[in-house]
Amino acid sequence: MTRTIVVSGGGTGIGKAVAARFAADGDRVVIVGRRADVLEKAAREIGATALAADLSDPADVERVRADLAERFGSIDVLVNNAGGNVERHGEQGDVAQRWTGNFRANVLTAVLPTEALRDLLNPSGRVLFVTSIAAFRGSSGTSYGPMKAALHPYAFDLAATLGPRGITVNVVAPGLIEDTEFFGGTLGDERRAMLVAQTHTGRAGTPQDVAETVHWLASPGSGHVTAQIVQVNGGAERGR
Ligand SMILES: NC(=O)c1ccc[n+]([C@@H]2O[C@H](COP(=O)([O-])OP(=O)(O)OC[C@H]3O[C@@H](n4cnc5c(N)ncnc54)[C@H](OP(=O)(O)O)[C@@H]3O)[C@@H](O)[C@H]2O)c1
């Protein structure tokens, strides 16, 4: 059965790998992000549909909802992957501005699409959130980890609400994942080595590691797995 999959932040990194994984199955995949050129390029590569929008903006999200409703009528899987640490990317400002920036980038980009699209989900639908190991181990004093952590109880409540419709809601928590725009060239060799040393697998993660886990959680066979956080970080969440 061909499903309709929506992946936020699907133009780069983890989201692109997730989108490609579903597209490889023959699913209809819609990728959403702010940069239209980046999205169009990725969409051509993986055989997806690009929809440019800032998912922290309620008006943009409403436009996405209307577009999806008109094109497809319903959706099967929503992958809330968009996000990042705006403090890492050098966003300036006082404490309130930095925390608000990460709130918009990580909480609103997940909550607004979820609230807007939840009524479009088919029975046996799936909602996925991409959190971070930072929600468990901190993010060097930035507001990124705390903002990711805010998604967890939201996902648990949503799982209870949508469960009777046969819809599952789960969260994946990556550790260091390379080949994405997340670090924007700011990850030094020393810090990289330290993060790899925290894993039990002795390696950095790949976007494919996350994509395979998301794909499994979205599969029909995972229908009794809900309200869970799946760690995709080589055991680093346990610490060394
Ligand atoms: N890489 C890691 O080590 C790592 C570890 C743990 C968790 N994560 C999480 O994994 C997710 C994917 O990150 P990544 O590593 O693949 O980095 P990435 O390449 O920077 O991907 C983030 C994506 O989110 C999109 N995005 C950001 N803000 C958005 C907004 N307001 N509206 C719509 N789209 C938005 C970006 O596209 P535009 O800029 O074009 O909007 C981009 O495609 C993020 O939630 C990140 O926090 C990453």
Description:
This protein has helices at 13-24, 36-46, 58-72, 95-117, 134-137, 144-162, 189-197, 207-217; strands spanning 4-8, 28-33, 49-52, 75-80, 121-130, 168-174, 228-232. It is α/β, with parallel strands linked by helices. It has a single domain (4-235), classed as NAD(P)-binding Rossmann-like Domain (Rossmann fold, 3-Layer(aba) Sandwich). Strands 3-2-1-4-5-6-7 form a 7-stranded parallel beta sheet, sandwiched between helices. Helix 3 packs parallel to helix 4. It is globular. The termini are far apart. Residues 8-9, 11-15, 32-35, 38, 54-56, 81-84, 105, 109, 130, 132, 174, 176-177, 180-182 line the site of NADP nicotinamide-adenine-dinucleotide phosphate.
What brief labels describe this structure?
seven-stranded parallel β-sheet, Rossmann fold, 240 residues, single chain, alpha/beta
Could you give a short description of this structure?
The protein has 240 residues and is α/β, with parallel strands linked by helices.
